[in-house]
Specification:
This protein has three helices and four strands, in the order H-E-E-H-H-E-E. With about 110 residues, it is of the alpha+beta class. The chain has a four-stranded antiparallel beta sheet with strand order 1-2-4-3, with helices on one face.
Length: about 110
């Protein structure tokens, strides 16, 4: 009886701790801009995340950098007017969908007959 209770308590504790390990899309920053952790899914919704962040300060977002590598970030600025410095700080395009790209592996050794 006690063994069953202990095992069930451990099972519940393990399931609760694993449930919080999912990735979340979020933006960190202040009123001048911020960063979004890069992932293919986050890049597809980067404009919405930046717009939600800048809306707290009643500003407009502008994506300024995208480094497509895990561990890197998508950078954005929050501007008072969307037409300020359009050419000095250009908008960086982001992908609108997450597409799996198969890498083509070439043979390491070529055999000549």
């Amino acid at each position: 009886m006690r063994v069953g209770l202990v095992v069930s308590v451990i099972g519940v504790a393990m399931s609760l701790s694993v449930g919080g390990a999912s990735a979340q899309a979020f933006a960190k920053g202040n009123d001048t801009g911020g960063i979004i952790p890069w992932s293919c899914e986050n890049e597809a919704i980067a404009w919405q995340l930046a717009a939600d962040h800048c809306a707290w300060y009643r500003k407009y977002p502008r994506i300024t950098s995208v480094v497509r590598q895990y561990g890197s970030y998508i950078g954005f600025n929050c501007l008072w007017n969307p037409y300020i410095a359009r050419y000095q700080i250009p908008v960086v395009p982001t992908r609108s969908a997450c597409v799996a790209q198969a890498q083509r592996l070439s043979p390491r050794v070529r055999v000549l007959y």
